[in-house]
Amino acid sequence: MKKVSVVVPVYNAEPFIRQCVESIASQTYPELEIILIDDGSEDKSMEICREFSSADKRIRILCQDHQGVSAARNQGLETASGEYLLFVDSDDMIHPDLAEAFVQQLEKRSADLAFCDYRKLESYKMDQARSQLFEHHDMLRWELADGAESAEWFYVKFPCVLRGIGGKMIRRNVIGTLRFDENLSKGEDTFFMYRLLDKEIHMAHLVQEWYLYRMHAASITHSLAVEKSSYYYDCYRTSRDNEYAKGQLAFAIIWERDLSSTIVNVLMKMKKAGDQEGCGFLKTQAALELKQSLFWKLDFVFKVWFVSSVFGGPLYGLLRKPYILAQKIFRKEKDEERADTGILTFHCADNYGAMLQAYGLKQYLRDMGIKAEIAAYEPPFMTGRHWWIPYMPQRNRALWQFLVSLYTWKTNLSRKQDFFRLRAKMREFRKKYLLNTWQKRIFFARQLKRLPYSYYLVGSDQIWNPDITFGLRKPYFGAFKNKRKEKVIAYGASLGGSELSSEYDQEFAGLLRYVDVISLREADAVPYVKRFCEKPLEVVLDPVFLLNQENWKQIEVLPKRSGYILLYLTEPNEELISYIKNLSQDKSLPIVELKANAGVTDKSFEVEYTAGPAEFLGLIHKADYVVTNSFHATAFSIIYQKQFVVFLHTNRGARLRNILRIHGLEDRLSQEGKNISVDTPIDWKEAERKAENAKKTSKAFLMEHVKRNI
Fold first, then answer.
1. 134 has pLDDT over 90
2. Which of 66, 502, 541, 603 sits most deeply, having the most CB atoms within 10 A of its CB?
């Protein structure tokens, strides 16, 4: 059994050290070495530590003059004999099973670093939280990352957790000669973790709040004592420049934003303390950022806040040249990036297919030299169904919709953490790939008159399906006032079936008059639409087929595992479940179900609740087999050239049949009484050849009707 060395720096921690050491000493993992490093404490901290040391041979005490927390941790690193190092601060506490859980996962997954979520608490709440740590917990859930994804965790997914060292267990050989910077009195753990990332480490994240972080006035992170030398700020600049040199512009901008925020926050504290010398030093540091090109890539509001905060009061700040310069640069960047073509689609729906088709259409137009962007129209009738307490407009079936909302809220409540993690991944994808940072969201149709576009692309997806939009919605037909609007083009619009209910016929006919050019996603819907308009109709592919496999690989997030059958259901299907269970037994492969709600189809399935659109792509890419009744899971099975089987959706079977027919893959469709072998070889070259004409038609439609902005 491998030894774990727990490193705890101690300085004037008399009120807290007893609880901290007790939580460490009560670990269920037996091979433990506890190293307490006294950094010249002036209170009774060491008396308490010696009391523990005399009663527990696992506890060692090291002493040094007051040299700072970095020197204390470094001394612990030098003397530790364990193969794993666990870092805990002297005022915090940990779960009794933490070390054991970390070691098991590091060994099982060959990971280099393990960490858990933490809970921030005031001192008076720590006792109650400590008692809760000993309560029964269900099966532990872990997330894994390495390489590029580890960097994303550091910057985007877990920036607060991973920028501190408390509650992290790291392999000794991974740390090597890396040490904490003793020239820093704060932020030393952030830069230590950043340098550790250069080793392309493999991380394991425990989705449990098993580290209790104490908030109190004496904490280093709450101290008004800050660096008055440029070294602290130069560490930010060095990290920023390193990321920029590696081509990681987004990460470089994050460092620039953090540096600027730190300068302003420290300046405010110095102003409050009346430290004029410190204020002058910080203004010098701020002036350096105004000359930095990466600073001007930050959000406009952030830049104005920075300049006005540093260079005087609001009125004085408005008259400063840097502020005027910020306005000019922002306007120039905005004018250069402003699109002439706006896309109205379901990008705001937390649905894999909706978000990926929106990305496919936008990205293809951009690749073709067309300045297109997705209009940030996010009406409550589309976003409300994904809220914590769902909202759906109550039309004819008010009671039924109320019961559905109530059930959805109950399932959300049952998996609260999963719900919010999934929503966060959806927001992250939307922000990164779909919308521009300066765009203001529009919630109501009357606000569409503000949009700056001349050309409007409505579609793709089921924008003309009243069951999805709770009635036919005028914006998705371009039926709104906007003095800049010149042309409305429907690309791949879908009714959700071959026709609408007769109650919508008159309204549908009236709305079609606003659409200048029409293309549909399903050929079965053409006869119905022709009844109401005399305009030529084209049948085009879903936008996901406008991009090739290599394009999609650029945004996918691959899972760490392989060797599984992927299941993705958009409605229950007993025949499908029976089929996939037999397939799993025949192939001796586990079933991974991708699910965006709290219900579980079968207890024997491994369920992935928190995959975003990028993870959706990765799960399909790495799967041995895909079994689904989803259109977009089928589409990406074709794009990634996977062995797959499709079962028809009750109400949306037309589009599944259509896309399989276009690719000549009707034999992948499992129907009642028809036996299908998932191992039947697929001639992908022939499938590509058959779909080539449909792709050319789809691309030609866009190039003909959408204004070129090259």
1. no
2. 541
Is 320:312 a contact under the CB 8 Å cutoff?
Answer: yes
Q: How many CB atoms lie within 10 A of CB 387?
A: 16
Give the separation between CA 167 and CA 162, rounded to whole angstroms: 10
Tell me the residue type at 249. L
Q: From residue 165, how far is each of 251, 443, 551 by CA, in Å?
A: 20, 42, 37
Q: pLDDT-derived band of residue 415, with 50, 70 and 90 as boundaries? A: low
The Cα–Cα gap between 654 and 648 comes to 9
> In terms of Cα–Cα distance, which of 36, 88, 89, 73 is closest to 58?
36
CATH of 4-222, one of 2.40.40.20, 3.50.50.60, 3.40.50.1980, 3.90.550.10: 3.90.550.10
* Domain 341-546 class, CATH top level: alpha beta
Residue 584, preceding bond cis, omega within 30 degrees? Answer: no
Identify each DSSP E strand in 95-217 by its residue range: 113-122, 142-146, 168-171, 202-215
Amino acid (1-letter code) at residue 229 = S
Tell me: pLDDT of 330 over 50: no
Instruction: Categorize the per-residue pLDDT at 317 as very low, low, confident or very high, splitting at 50, 70 and 90.
Output: very low
Q: For residue 421, how far is the Cα from the chain centroid?
A: 8
The whole-number pLDDT of residue 297 equals 84
Given phi > 0 = left and psi -120 to 50 = alpha, else beta, which region is 200?
left
Range scoring the smallest mean pLDDT among 294-308, 489-503, 638-652 = 294-308
CATH architecture designation of domain 549-679: 3-Layer(aba) Sandwich (3.40)
Q: Which residues of 327-341 are buried (b: 16+ CB within 10 A; e: fewer)?
A: eeebeeeeeeeebbb
Cα(209)–Cα(218) distance, integer angstroms: 23
Q: Does residue 336 register a pLDDT over 50? A: no
Task: Tell me the backbone φ, ψ of residue 521, rounded to 5 degrees.
Answer: -90, -30
Confidence of residue 602 (pLDDT cuts 50, 70, 90): confident
DSSP string, 471-502: S--GGGGT-S--TT--EEEEEEE--SSS---G
Pick 312 or 558 by higher pLDDT.
558
H or E element that contains 669: strand 669-670
Q: Cα dist. 266→69, 168, 302, 608, 672 in Å? A: 20, 28, 16, 42, 69
Rg of the chain over Cα atoms, rounded to whole angstroms, equals 29
Whose CA is closest to 426, among 371, 488, 358?
Answer: 358
pLDDT band at 31 (very low <50, low <70, confident <90, very high): very high
Q: CB neighbours of 539 closer than 8 A, spacing ≥ 6? A: 519, 520, 521, 522, 523, 526, 694, 697
Across 272-281, 297-306, 319-328, 397-406, least confident range: 319-328
Query: Residues 81, 3: contact at Cβ < 8 Å?
Result: yes
| Mean pLDDT of the chain, nearest integer | 84
Residue among 166, 258, 169 nearest 214 (CA): 166
Per DSSP, the three-state class of 702 is: helix
